[in-house]
Design goal:
15% strand; 266 residues; alpha+beta; 8-stranded antiparallel beta sheet
Length: 266
Amino acid sequence: MIAVTGVFQSRPDAERAMNSIRQTGIPDDKITLLTPGQADQVKEEVKAVPTDASEQPGMGKTVGALLGGGVGFTGGSILVALVPGLGPITALGMLGAGVLGVAGAAIGGSTGGEVEKSSYEGLPEDEIFVYEDALRRGRTVVIALADDESSAGVVRDMLKREGAESVDAAREQWWTGLRNSEEAHYTGGGKNFNQDEKFYRLGFEAAMHARTRCMEFDQVSAEMSAALENVKRKNPGADVEDAFTRGYRRGREHYQQLCNDSQKAA
């Protein structure tokens, strides 16, 4: 599967795009819409969703403890969760459940006990932080999983026509929002940020990978080393290690701060 993502300024635009994607033949369980919401709004959405026999296969009739970080799997296709470092999010369908599960939300109540990985296979876990940043800025994210590059191209064109920003553009906005503070931090240690930015940023982004960012450093040191070796292979002869490692550690600090801030807000 190939993930295609569009970031929208407004939810109505995103909903219109999602309906257009459905017309291409991509099934509903391979399309999702993610949108931010205040805790009170999310609670009301949970109350408003029916819990009858019309549930999608694999979705249980459970409403988790929202303020405790739980998830509501309810009839139809609405899912709500508190995502670490982000806050309350509303998502649609089993793909939405998979995205939020990867992002670290507490997923519970599905018939099988957990959301099957097949429901989100092909989702780039190293892009989850980009989706989260867009949501943090009040944007709405549409994701579709296409069977092949041809179908993915059709969806990309459709999202663009509907006014979506690409995930690559959203990634650049994320870094632009951080760059000044990271430059000040890095140069404060006597380093040349303009010279080292590429590898510092690669380390920072590696630390934001959904699979490892909630773990203790000693648990992810092997992951960091593997990512560092990969960057070295792609940049033979470049002075990579110090900038990458500093960026990785700084990325972990950044994510922890986001988590702390969201806990205070709750």
